[in-house]
Design goal:
The chain contains four helices and 24 strands. The chain has 446 residues and is mainly beta. The chain is globular and about 70 Å long. The protein has one domain: Porin.
């Protein structure tokens, strides 16, 4: 039982052995300030960056939107862009697997147990203030349908920091002490997702750490130590022109910042009808019990505790995620036969812990570990009971990163798969080999 915690202890022990950008470069041009004003280590935000974002992409204690930076021919667009004309930036992310892991059963890239490199990806980012306390953000992945993020923001309602509103497509886990999507390491946090892009032990239900369309109310009164948030979303991870016939998802978050320490706690409750259930009966036949959009029988509940400690020479992130998922009884008729499906509730406990050392202004190194454990549960297929055992997924990461310029990084990362053999098995008995790899990654924002 204690083996899965050992890498976490290694990270903590390494810490006690013996600063420098995701705002876009357009913001740096507008305010004529370095990226390090808002970033501790790109893409992570420091306290100034958090306040800048909460204040609607306006400098803390200011309302500069719409009054400065009017440059022809955009005089009638009400875009506060300063020296950034237009207020648009491009981000290029890419990578190369230097040492390939063993392949999956189908001998294809999609069968890699862990995956964090998907070739080169270009994202267009645009954002800023349109008028005092009214701002916008747009994030558009190149060549993909729909936006990643696209929302309007209204801040400083009633009093400075008291109430703000976001409406549109946005990142749900965004104002937490450890937000999703701002990972310094090469893989998404296992605490959020179960494992990064793993076909077998993936996350359960429709959880919070995704992009979704909704309405968010939040505030940081007087821009003091306490931040609160309440939100309602489709719960179906919709960011394009899709219809949502499911129930809604609700979330609430509280965060406290005190000196070098930030701590947050989030609750996420979601009723959905999006997940098809796959099962195999006693005769070996594969059955699919599809979700019914008219019956939101999937329930996901999630609690996320995260904490961050920031020192001038190092930073530590900790995330604990407890998720439960249940689905109602289902039936399907194939070849004139009716098959039934029922399942116990599934519980998952996951943790991620990472530390980054700021060696100097251009070099950083870090160590991280994450694990996700699914408790055993039972499925009943056509009145026959099948026991599903525990699945333990784990990943240990060691990374070194250089920053040739303020808006460019190159990282070399070693990833060690610490998952159990049972977690790498598919329901049909085939499985993955241990997925250890070395990855080279780059990130450029212009």
């Amino acid at each position: 039982m204690y083996k899965k915690y050992l890498p976490a202890f290694i990270v903590i022990a390494a810490l006690v052995m013996p600063a420098v950008a995701q705002a876009i470069p357009a913001f740096s041009k507008k305010y004529e300030a370095p990226c390090s004003l808002c970033h501790a280590s790109w893409p992570r935000l420091n306290d100034v960056g958090v306040k800048f974002k909460l204040n609607g992409y306006q400098m803390p204690d200011s309302e500069d939107g719409g009054e400065s930076g009017k440059v022809s021919p955009a005089d009638n667009l009400f875009l506060d862009i300063g020296s950034a004309n237009p207020p648009v930036s491009l981000r290029l992310e890419g990578g190369l697997i230097l040492i390939q892991p063993g392949e999956g059963p189908d001998k294809s890239q999609e069968d890699k147990f862990f995956c964090c490199v998907e070739g080169n990806a270009v994202t267009l980012d645009a954002g800023g203030a349109m008028a005092p306390n009214i701002s916008y953000w747009l994030s558009l992945p190149w060549g993909k349908e729909g936006v990643q993020q696209g929302y309007l923001r209204f801040v400083n309602l009633f009093k400075p920091g008291l109430l703000a509103v976001d409406i549109g497509s946005m990142k749900v886990v965004d104002y937490d002490a450890v937000p999703a999507g701002r990972e310094w390491f090469g893989s998404p946090l296992i605490a959020f997702y179960g494992s990064p892009y793993n076909n077998n032990s993936k996350e359960i239900g429709l959880t919070a750490a995704h992009y979704d369309t909704g309405l968010r109310l939040y505030g940081r009164p007087k821009y003091g130590p306490f931040t609160y948030e309440f939100g309602v979303y489709t719960g179906a991870q919709i960011t394009s022109s899709q219809n949502d016939d499911s129930d809604l998802a609700f979330t609430a978050m509280g965060r406290v910042d005190k000196g070098k320490i930030s701590v947050s706690l989030r609750y996420w409750g979601n009723s959905s009808a999006k997940i098809d259930q796959k099962a195999t009966n006693s005769s070996g036949a594969s059955l699919l019990f599809p979700a019914n959009s008219k019956s939101a029988d999937e329930k996901t509940q999630e609690f996320i505790l995260s904490a961050r400690y920031v020192h001038p020479y190092f930073a530590v992130d900790f995330t604990l995620d407890r998720t439960s998922f249940s689905v109602g009884d289902r039936q399907v008729t194939t070849d004139g036969m009716t098959h039934s499906f029922s399942q116990d509730g599934i519980n998952r406990m996951a943790m991620s812990l990472g530390a980054i050392w700021y060696v100097n202004s251009w070099f950083e190194t870090g160590l991280a570990y994450g694990f996700s454990q699914y408790e055993g549960y039972t499925q009943t297929i056509d009145d026959e009971i099948y026991k599903m055992g525990n699945k333990d997924v784990g990943l240990l990461q060691l990374r070194a990163q250089i920053r040739p310029t303020m808006n460019m990084t190159f990282g070399l990362e070693i990833q060690m798969d610490t998952s159990s053999a049972s977690a790498r098995k598919r329901p049909d008995g085939s499985g993955f080999s241990s997925q250890n790899k070395i990855v080279l990654q780059w990130d450029l924002a212009i």
